[in-house]
Amino acid sequence: MSAETPVQSAGTFTRQRRRFRDWRGTRPFWAGLFTMLGGVPIAYFPYATLKLGTMSLTMATTAGAGSLIIGVLLITLGLTMWFQQATRVFAGVAAIILALVSLVVSNIGGFIIGFLLAMLGGALGISWAPGKAESAGGGPQPGGQGPTAEGATEPASDGVAGEPGQPFPPFGTGDSGPAGGVRPEAHHGGHRVG
């Protein structure tokens, strides 16, 4: 082995980690993960046989098939959130509905564990929104346009003074404007001020 081998493997690990972070950032990753994790106990517990010493507990119920279907659907919805981001709202609502149904069908929603995880995943899926790409310079936008983010002011359009968004001319100019040159804010109690 040469001295360069650890550095090369560290670079590969770093690249893989960054690639995964970029992939995770473009989709509702945590919503899908929690939804899939919620489906596992809902589908597993009705078919599990637990051993306590020499005694075995079987929790099979008549609704075991329903529990399996709900668990598989939750896992499928979690994968859908990862790979089809456009359907995230539908998948989130469906996950919440399936989690609520699992309370009655599947041993109190997989002993509340699966229920809570599926509810959290569904809520995260509904609330996730894709991020917007930022410009590299952070300055004016292409085409001479200024910032267009929330809170940015729009330039005033050419219009008649007194229209909404248009400034009034100062007193003493030849422009009569509204009400014969008197600005509306100059009226107090019906009396003319100024």
From TrEMBL:
Coiled-coil regions listed: none
InterPro entries documented for this protein: DUF6114 (IPR046096)
The protein's name: DUF6114 domain-containing protein
Region (Disordered): 131-194
KW Aminoacyl-tRNA synthetase (keyword) present: no
Membrane-spanning ranges: 28-47, 59-82, 89-105
Keywords: Membrane, Transmembrane, Transmembrane helix
Bias (Gly residues): 136-146
